[in-house]
Amino acid sequence: MSQQFVPDENECDCQNSGSAAISEQDVLLVTVVGSPQGVRETILTLYRLGFAQVGDWSPLQRAATAGHVMSVLIRRKVRSGHTTPPGK
């Protein structure tokens, strides 16, 4: 696997951290898997929609399925104080 997926030494395991700032974040992984052209087009579409910068995605990596690749986006999201179920 690429070094892109190896955690930085300075990053901590949020489950075991005593830091309030880090414990109030969710780490989200968004993965796109498909043909190289399809993955690139999807990343560009998400960029045009304002979802993420193209450079925020990992380089294309071989996926488990022959001919497919994948790219991963890691997002940190601050947790809200409470969540409301959809429709309520």
Question: Layout of SSEs?
Answer:
Elements: H1 20-23, E1 25-34, H2 36-48, E2 61-62, E3 69-78
Antiparallel strand pairs: 1-3, 2-3
Tell me what you see in this structure.
- This protein is of the alpha+beta class.
- It has a domain at 26-78.
- The chain contains 2 helices and 3 strands.
- It has helices at 20-23, 36-48; strands at residues 25-34, 61-62, 69-78.
- A 3-stranded antiparallel sheet has the order 1-3-2.
- The radius of gyration is 16 Å and the shape is globular.
- The termini are far apart.
- Residues 6-12 have low confidence and may be disordered.
Defining key terms:
88 residues; alpha+beta; three-stranded antiparallel beta sheet; 3 strands
